[in-house]
Design goal:
3 domains, six-stranded parallel sheet, 16 strands, Protein-Tyrosine Phosphatase, Chain A, 17 helices, UDP-N-acetylmuramoyl-L-alanine:D-glutamate ligase, alpha/beta, six-stranded mixed sheet, Rossmann fold
Amino acid sequence: MNIFLNKKILIYGLGKSGLSSFKFLKKKNSVFLFDDDFSKTQNLNLKKNIINYQNILKVKFDQIIISPGIDINKCKLSRFLKKNYNKIYSDLDVFNSFYNNDCITITGTNGKSTTCQLLYEIFSDQKFDVRLVGNIGNPILSVNNVNKKTVFIIEASSYQLEYSRLFKSKFAAILNISPDHIERHKTFKNYIKAKFKLLKNQSNKHFAFVKKKDFIINKELRSNSLNCKIIKVDTKKIDKLLKNIENKYFLTETNKENFSFAFEISKKFNLKYGLIKKTIQKFNGLKYRQQVIFKKKYLTIINDSKSTSFSSSMGLLKSNQNIYWLLGGICKKGDKFDLPRKYFKNIKAFVYGKNKKFFNKKLQGKINFKNFNNLKEALNKVILFIKKEKFINKTILFSPCAASFDSFKNFEDRGLYFNKLIKKHFDGIK
């Protein structure tokens, strides 16, 4: 029985996810809307559905659809949500109640968006009716013209999975796990628990893809009883396939890992390897995710603004030469810098932003670093350095290992700003 039919439903959070949930559910239910930002509700032409705090306490809701960005410990309805915790669901749960399509759901600490985009292009090139949804920016309930053969590729964050109760995915992947979002989940254990919810909800007819040599994932697998079929992905084996592909995007460990998962998942759909090879050959990745924006004989510039933790930068730090590393912003609680010692001398770090002391402590005694007030000052100093090294292969790596909110709206805004700074010094950047 569908629990999202003919019900009284509160949708909390009116961003993309919340508004798409409202549009999807409004014809089938009595739907009420609330957001902590009062101005947001005034800008919407939905006054009939907006409910204030006092009236929320008077209505007996059947379900509460909560947006991923809301922390129930730090929001206006915190006490109400905790009291009604068993009524909280996500837009993934709503989707699960109305659709029975093949879903490929990707989670993990790093590489989710790139792996999803890669899978989307692989399936598109093989003429599948495929939709790319979830945390990558397209709400799962905003999709139209769905048929039985439509395949959904879903990026799922720990925030989305934390609130989900019903969602199941026939194909699910946990790419990797390292400390992240501890400020939200409180402990690393809770963060891992949110990720593994994706696998725990699977049946014995479902497939779970996990990184073979991930210590944390393997430890969690041993301590959980799962019904799904576990497929351990050996990310080292992909080197053989990449020998015949001339795409420098897949030189880093991170992107090899992303392709490994995409390839293993593709096998379950009997996709044509020749076409997969063509897709990989032309794959350019996503903006601000390990994106090479400038490349000349002696200089490579990489915009990796999406990086919000040390683990997300490790692949680039290992695979480039003579690195001038720009990093800084709002540090992640519990983040660890685990780069092997042999790479230290290859890197000069230029630290900026709010949490310089945190980054200084992590780099002290390992990598030479200098501090700056902001990204612009740091980059100007880098430019002075590289002009002195005319005939040495060098890399300017913008991989912040931090959240962007001390100075920018989001990582896209930060990435765009970096590109604009680079344009003042170099011609022809992407």
